[in-house]
Design goal:
By secondary structure, the chain is of the alpha+beta class. It has one helix spanning about 30-45, and strands at about 5-10, 25, 55-60, 65-70. The protein has a four-stranded antiparallel beta sheet, with helices on one face. A hairpin with a 5-residue loop joins β3 (about 55-60) and β4.
């Protein structure tokens, strides 16, 4: 699918006295742009509030000016790793 450039920001920013601070996201769809935005917000804030269960409403603006509205959420995915110790402990 062809990628496009979107401007994405928190919907909460639209109700503030300052203008929204959009991120430029390259994605295959507005949905993917919203998901990428959520990932970047969580990683850069280091709080991981979205993954911890606090959904965020976002606005995705396409190049033609059309706006899409999403609620993004996430979930932690456990990952386990086993490494041989070289010794029998059983």
């Amino acid at each position: 699918m062809k990628k496009a450039t979107y401007q994405v920001w928190s919907a909460a920013d639209e109700h503030q006295s300052y203008p929204p601070r959009p991120r430029t996201i390259t994605a295959s769809s507005p949905t993917e742009a919203a998901e990428k935005w959520a990932y970047l917000e969580d990683v850069e804030s280091v709080d991981f509030t979205i993954v911890k269960g606090q959904p965020e409403d976002v606005v995705v603006k396409a190049g033609n000016g059309q706006r899409f509205y999403f609620t993004v959420s996430g979930q932690p995915v456990p990952k386990y790793t086993a490494k041989p110790t070289g010794a029998s402990r059983i």
